[in-house]
Fold UbiA family prenyltransferase.
Amino acid sequence: MTTLFTAPTRVGAYARLAKLDIWDYYLAVPLAWSLCGPARDDPAALATLGLFLIGAVGVVAGAVAFDDVAGFRDGRDWANCAPRDSASAAAPPRRRLHRKPLLTGELTEREAVLFGWGATLFGLLVWTWTVAFAEHHPLWSVLLLAGCFFGAVQYSRGIKISYRGLQEVVLAGFGAGLVLAAVGLCTGELTGFAVVQAALFGFGPLLVGVYANTRDARGDASVGRPTAAVLLTGRGNRLFIAALTAAEVGLVVAASLLGAAPWWFALAMLPATGLRAAQLRHGVGYGDLAGARLLGLHAHRVTVSLLILVNLFAPLLGGH
């Protein structure tokens, strides 16, 4: 495949392979910190969270590198980067190729695979150290962390979970698992409100991914990658996205009404709810999938920021 342009540095190419500019999963760590209550000021807990974050960067970098390798091998990434009116176009726009250093020829397949294994091994070693170092290591937390590692590594390699119709489950479950595993290692405890917040965190990457998958449905279908956007009709997929959005908002409201969260929780989350409504309008209403994906990133970041504020101020306002 012809090299379209040369990167200024190979470091930049590896950084783009690792998708270091997309840091939304790593927000699980500050959210977990805010859920630690009195342990927030414990140096051991802070060190545990620091190690956890470093390990997460390695695991995620390895997972996305393997995903790029899989997309390069089966042609999915080339098809998805091509202009929307011609999947067989010979030269996709450079802006779409910028984050795919394998397609641009900046990195070879072998280099990407070695990077993926190196990052994965690094993440595994750091997470193992994190569990050994943590003051608390309940079995459920260790199992959650092991599940996150397995799901990330096997997402596009090995059993290829994302090629077996479970992509959406992994997108949400990985994020929720990170939050709960980190809280468990720092406190050894699990509350209903923490579970609610972990689920809301998981909705973040999920409600970014479903819009991206809708945009990439043609390329995914061509290689047999069965995302919801591939398996459902256009109308069915729109209903699926609307249902996910309603489920996230419904979880916030139900948590307030049923006592799992402070009574004012739903009011505090209104800015995030507004962004979700705008995302749904852009993506499902107007068909602006790129705009909806971007709004999804903003909505996730606002959601996490609001959750952290809720956790910090709830004791002062008579909450959990």
User: Anything to note?
Assistant: The longest helix spans residues 43-74.
